[in-house]
Design brief:
CATH superfamily of the largest domain: 2-enoyl-CoA Hydratase, Chain A, domain 1
Number of strands: 16
CATH topology of the largest domain: 2-enoyl-CoA Hydratase, Chain A, domain 1
Distance between the termini: 139 Å
Largest sheet: 6 strands, parallel
Order of helices and strands: HEHEHEEHEEHHEHEHEEEHHHHHHEEEEE
Number of domains: 4
CATH class of the largest domain: Alpha Beta
Number of helices: 14
Strand order of the largest sheet: 8-5-3-2-1-11
Shape: elongated
CATH architecture of the largest domain: Alpha-Beta Complex
Structural class: alpha/beta
Strand content: 15-25%
Length: about 450
């Protein structure tokens, strides 16, 4: 048997050897994990729709997440018809002072960076476009979609042009073309944009954008950063539920339909008290529309015209105006709808087909409901004593002038009087009711 001391030494040696192996393994795993974590990654957000306050919050949150997470860049995949100038200005400020390099990629094919989207694309460190995409058309328009006249229009155009040039100057791109996009609604495709140095890259997919962007040096908060994104992984950053709802309510078409649905629901509830569901649904739709007015630039005159038009249509159902109120209501409704969105602050407008369709539908519904309600009110009563008037009964006991007889009508026997003699079995029409006595005449 081995001595006790030798056994203890062997046990200590095995324990030390095991601890050393464990430490080496842990070090290797930690180094591999650190190398994996050190691999560059980019954060991707998708903007597919109008530029509005919800999108602004989305971009701001994404930049904060990219900075805190150590992202190598923030990529914005953009497809927008435009939006609010105030929201675009805020996003431009965020991109120009971003804590990480930013890339705006106009994609997929068929997408556009119109109006406000032009400013956002130019504000990025790297501007890229997919084949078959367009950029430009940033000229401010009036409520009817035309050019803003007068001194106000000139001031707005000059301000927007100066804003566009400053963005291009900051990023070292084509200032002259940016001014043309504002003053003359210039719009170009991806190849022409690359030739005119409006953008930096034309690429068919996001991976190609990252490969072409690698090796470029960009300015991030007054310091130079060399991009190394060829092998970067892509992590998608999603909108929150609140941002999705706000983004949905920023669509002028949806807001307009909610407004019309709310007005119809409330009108139906007032016309037919007790239906409950139309009133509840209408109130919800109307409140959602009013909440959207906090996001979209609404023209108060347009909203008042819409309310005036609805009031005229309701009045037409109860007042004999020979169609004047109804016609005036439709005209006020259409003009109010066209002027509802203040397009001096955004290029977003309510679709004309939706306006005409909604105006026709709303007019038809209100006039039809009003007609049915008025017809019901003009009908002869079907219950109570008033319901006897006009009914035909059979004389049971003879009726003579000055002497009452008996009439069987509505399954009941009534004391009856008449100015003419009526024999038993004769048919008589009830003319009026006086207490428990009816006055009759011979039935035709």
């Amino acid at each position: 048997m081995r001595p006790e001391k030798a056994r203890r030494q062997d046990s200590n040696f095995r324990a030390t050897l095991f601890a050393a192996c464990a430490a080496i393994l842990a070090f290797a795993l930690g180094r591999a994990s650190a190398q994996a974590n050190a691999r560059p990654w980019v954060e991707l957000i998708e903007i597919d729709g109008s530029i509005n306050p919800a999108v602004t919050n989305y971009v701001e949150d994404a930049l904060s997440a990219a900075e805190s997470g150590g992202a190598s860049a923030l990529v914005i995949r953009l497809d927008t018809p435009g939006g609010l100038l105030t929201s675009a200005e805020r996003i431009v400020k965020l991109l120009l002072s971003a804590p990480v390099p930013t890339i705006v990629y106009v994609a997929p094919s068929g997408a556009s960076a119109a109006s406000a989207g032009t400013f956002i694309t130019e504000a990025a460190n790297v501007a890229a476009m997919a084949p078959g995409t367009t950029i430009g058309a940033a000229h401010p328009v009036s409520e009817t979609g035309g050019t803003i006249k007068g001194a106000m229009g000139e001031k707005l155009v000059n301000y927007t042009a100066s804003f566009a040039r400053s963005i291009a100057r900051e990023r070292g791109r084509n200032e002259q073309w940016m001014e043309e996009a504002v003053r003359h609604s210039a719009a170009i495709g991806e190849h022409e944009a690359l030739e005119k140095h409006v953008i930096d890259i034309v690429a068919p997919d996001l991976r190609s954008v990252l490969v072409q962007a690698s090796g470029r040096t960009v300015e991030v908060r007054s310091r130079s950063v060399k991009l190394d994104l060829a092998d970067a992984t892509v992590r998608v950053y999603e909108m929150t539920l609140g941002q999705r709802i706000l983004n949905l309510l920023s669509d002028p078409n949806i807001v307009y339909l909610l407004l019309m649905a709310g007005l119809i629901g409330l009108y139906f509830e007032f016309a037919h008290p007790g239906a409950i569901f139309p009133g509840v649904a209408g109130a919800i739709c109307l409140l959602l529309a009013l909440a959207s007015f906090q996001v979209l630039p609404v023209n108060v005159s347009g909203l008042l015209l819409i309310l005036l038009g609805v009031a005229m249509l309701i009045a037409e159902a109860f007042v004999t105006s020979y169609g004047i109120l109804g016609l005036g209501g439709v005209v006020a409704l259409v003009f109010g709808s066209l002027l509802l969105i203040d397009t001096s602050k955004t290029n977003l407008v309510v679709n004309r087909q939706i306006i005409y369709g909604a105006a026709a539908a709303l007019s038809s519904i209100i006039l039809s409901l009003g007609y049915l309600l008025a017809r019901e009110r003009r009908k002869v009563a079907r219950t109570g004593l008033e319901a006897l008037v006009g009914e035909v009964g059979v004389v049971r006991d003879p009726i003579r002038p000055g002497a009452a007889g008996t009439l069987f009508v509505h399954g009941e026997l009534w004391r009856a009087t008449s100015d003419e003699a009526l024999g038993a079995g004769a048919q008589a029409t009830v003319v009026s009711v006086h207490g428990l006595e009816v006055r009759v005449r011979r039935a035709a």
